[in-house]
Amino acid sequence: MFDIPKEREVPFAGVTPAPVGEQPMMITGNWRTYRPVIDHEKCNLCMNCVIFCPDACWQLNEAEEEVVWNSKYCKGCLICVNECTTAALTKTYELDFEDGVVRLEKLF
Amino acid sequence: MAVAVKTQTLSPIKKIRSVPTEEYYVPGHRTCAGCGPALQYKLVAKAAGPNTIFIGPTGCMYVANSSYLCTPYAVPWIHAQITNGGAVASGIEAAYQVLIRKGKWEGELPNVIVMAGDGGSVDIGLQAMSAMMYRGHDALFICYDNEAYANTGIQTSPTTPYGGNTTFTPPGPAIPEGKRLFPKDPPQLVIGGHPAVKYVATASVAYPVDLINKVRKALNVPGPTFLHIHAPCPKGWKFDESKTVEVAKLAIQTGMWVLYEWENGEFKYQHKPKEYKPVREYLKVQNRFAHLTEAHIAKMQAFVDAKLKAPGIPVEIPVPPPRATA
Ligand SMILES: Cc1ncc(C[n+]2csc(CCOP(=O)(O)OP(=O)(O)O)c2C)c(N)n1
Ligand code: SF4
Ligand SMILES: [Mg+2]
After folding, report:
1. Which residue of A104, B160, B274, B293 sits 20 to 30 Å from the alpha carbon of B287, by its own alpha carbon?
2. What total number of domains does chain A contain?
3. pLDDT band at A107, cuts 50/70/90?
4. B108, B220 in Cβ contact below 8 A?
5. Quick check: A37 contacting B, CB < 8 Å?
6. CATH number attached to the domain at B24-325
7. Is the CB of B148 under 6 A from ligand 2?
8. Range of the domain at A91
9. Chain A contact set for B71 (CB, 8 A)
10. DSSP at B190
């Protein structure tokens, strides 16, 4: 678009590629001490967890009519559990899970 | 001289289910768990959509997001110094105006949004913000208010409430209430002194639909616009990170934060509680206020009561007497 002579080109400082959907260079799932657990029976899809998650870790799967949790990035703040209108979300200690992030051999 | 204006109209939404599903502020950032500013960023980015450029003055929403050369912004984003978010936005908007005039840019004029902290907006960043408003650039300046200089370890800022315990206003025998001053009023600063500004609003992470609609309206209105967004910071305000939205909601229920729009000289209020809860309810859930005595709380309540008589309009505030000895 711009005609800048080669010799006047300056490498732009600190340019980074835009992430697509997620930023895998900053995985935050291993911050968790608690994990939100969903009981789909009780969920009425009020979408509070989807809208209030600062890390966009709850998304609606339209086809399945279910909210889906992102374990790779969830920091375990539990805003979702606090804002859940039907008590479908509860918290469980991360250590209680076979795949608990604290048990992972490689954290990053 | 022809000035390009946006032809897009971002439409308002009615309910949570119609919030766009696309994320432009994606998972994978180092903001604290439960960070209110991160939550509002996600919502603002959704509201603005792909035709957007963010300017990020130094503060948590720059540092905690973009460290180690990776960022969560899926739309163009540029760092600015903490002092000059408004200037960088002005330059970007002016450059697009020139490119469009010369036929070198065929796309739309983008949404230019400054995402500045309270320090970066109405304290150290005030002159550049004011200049952008004064010159009438077509850009949106957002002050996400976590009521402190959070990123450097929670120092007091002009929006830190009276009585707030920060690293620069620790309560002690000489000053038992911690912070002695009452806060600045950012929307009033903008409204009062900038004739080019036609739309100013306050928003909160507790009311996401209202927030999204205000962002869209601010972007649709030509010329400079300003949003003041309440964004609780669990680390700085010392409350449990699961309570971010709850605390934001309590602020509105107690009158500590008022949701309003100011458009062409008229105020309109949103989500106004029928009856306000005592400010104590808001104070007691945050440890930054744990040291306050009954007398301090009464002083705070009196301030809020006066403010609620005409929300948005500044009230006379008690100015602390000068200290007797240095
Ligand atoms: C000129 C200048 N002075 C001081 C700093 C140090 N500094 C970096 S971030 C920050 C806090 C910014 O506070 P605010 O704008 O409220 O954003 P927050 O971190 O609260 O999100 C400060 C003081 C700086 N980067 N530049
Ligand atoms: S200190 Fe506060 S504003 Fe900064 S990242 Fe943490 S929660 Fe967010
Ligand atoms: Mg701040």
Report:
1. B274
2. 1
3. low
4. no
5. no
6. 3.40.50.970
7. no
8. 30-101
9. 16, 18-19, 23
10. H
**Rounded CA separation B5/B20 (Å):** 24
Which one of B71, B235, B285 makes the best mutation probe of the A interface by having the most chain A beta carbons within 10 Å? B71
Q: How far apart are CA B112 and CA B256, in angstroms?
A: 30
Ligand nearest to the CA of B35: 2
Size of interface A-B (CB pairs under 8 A): 117
DSSP B202-239: EEETT-HHHHHHHHHHHHHSSS-EEEEEE---HHHHT-
- Decide if A4 is inside a domain: no
Alpha helices in chain A (DSSP H): 48-52, 79-83
Q: Where are chain B's structural domains?
A: 24-325
Inform me whether the C-beta atom of residue A49 falls under 8 Å from chain B C-beta atoms.
no
**CA–CA separation, B223 and B153 (whole Å):** 35
Give pLDDT tens digits for B76-109: 999 999 999 999 999 999 999 999 999 999 999 9
Cβ atoms of residues B52 and B75 within 8 Å: yes
Whole-angstrom distance, CA of residue B5 vs CA of residue B132: 17
- The yes-or-no verdict on residue B231 having pLDDT over 70 is yes
* Contact (CB<8Å) B27/A70: yes
Domain holding A34: CATH number? 3.30.70.20
| Tokens 């204006």, located at residue | B5
Q: Per the domain annotation, does A60 fall within a domain?
A: yes
The lowest-confidence range among B39-48, B265-274, B286-295 is B265-274
Asked if residue A66 belongs to a domain, the reply is yes
The pTM for the full model equals 0.94
Q: What is the ipTM of this complex?
A: 0.93
The pLDDT tens digits of the residues spanning B201-217 come to 999 999 999 999 999 99
Option in B33, B74, B234 nearest A31 (CB): B33
